[in-house]
Amino acid sequence: MTRFVFVPGAGSDSWFWHLVTPRLEAAGHDVLAVDLPWADERAGLPEYVDVIVEAIRAAEAASSDAPPQSPVLVAQSMGAFPAVMVCERLPVAELVLVAPMIPAPGESAGTWWENTGQGAAMRAFAREEGRDPDAPFDEVEVFLHDLPAALVAEGAEHEGTVPADVPFASVWTAERWPDVPTRVIAGRYDRLFPLDFVRRMSRERLGVEPAVIDTGHMTALVRPDQLAELLLVP
């Protein structure tokens, strides 16, 4: 049995993983999906790390009759920032970053966008798809374009929380990437973090080639079967 710990992206919650969770549980694994206090103006990345670490320790205590194990930490989008910091606090068997903001030591989530050239990559992909690269940001067009209508309606009941400014100002104060096996999973049609952009970031910052799923940014909702399959095959 493997314990998978899911970390959501900015403004999202544990519901984001609700289609992947039963697939992993059916395969005999344990799943812990964490909620983060995105709207709390007093909470930054260190506080998010505390929440994740405490949730993992509580799960370990609840299963004290089982042999201790290091979890597989799976993080979506901005969730990569606190997830990589958790690896400095607890033993982690593997870190899996899905449609991620891949941080660099000494970087904040706020400076990441300009540092990586995300804006230019996003506009280039919009032109490639025949969309207006200078159109105002549209959450539906960027995030929900490939979600089934039923999921869009269900997701409306779990409306995303507008993240506070604090986590974007928090800096990952580390000298290097933690010594943890790391994988990246990218969406072929991700309009926020286009595939070529994620490939470049994965190679430059981690030296790894991302696995690719035919989806946009919301991989766990659009292709839960494929994502579960990738998680189950190291």
Mean pLDDT: 94
Q: Per CATH, what is the topology?
A: Rossmann fold
Report the top-level CATH class.
Answer: Alpha Beta
At the fourth level of CATH, the homologous superfamily is Alpha/Beta hydrolase fold, catalytic domain
Helicity range: 25-40%
Quaternary state, please? single chain
Q: Find the structural class using helix and strand composition.
A: alpha/beta
* Unreliable parts: none
Shape: globular
Number of strands: 6
Termini separation comes to 14 Å
CATH architecture level-2 label: 3-Layer(aba) Sandwich
Continuous helix count: 11
Radius of gyration computed on alpha carbons = 17 Å
Largest sheet: 6 strands, parallel
Please give the order of strands in the largest beta sheet: 2-1-3-4-5-6
Q: What is the N-to-C succession of helices and strands?
A: EHEHEHEHHHHHEHEHH
The proportion of strand residues reads 5-15%
InterPro entries: AB_hydrolase_1, AB_hydrolase_fold, Sec-Metab_Biosynth_Hydrolase
Protein name: Alpha/beta hydrolase
Domain AB hydrolase-1: 4-229
Keywords: Hydrolase
Can you characterise this structure?
There is one protein chain. By secondary structure, the protein is an alpha/beta fold. The protein has a single domain, classed as Alpha/Beta hydrolase fold, catalytic domain (Rossmann fold, 3-Layer(aba) Sandwich), CATH 3.40.50.1820. The chain contains eleven helices and six strands. It has a six-stranded parallel beta sheet, with helices on both faces.
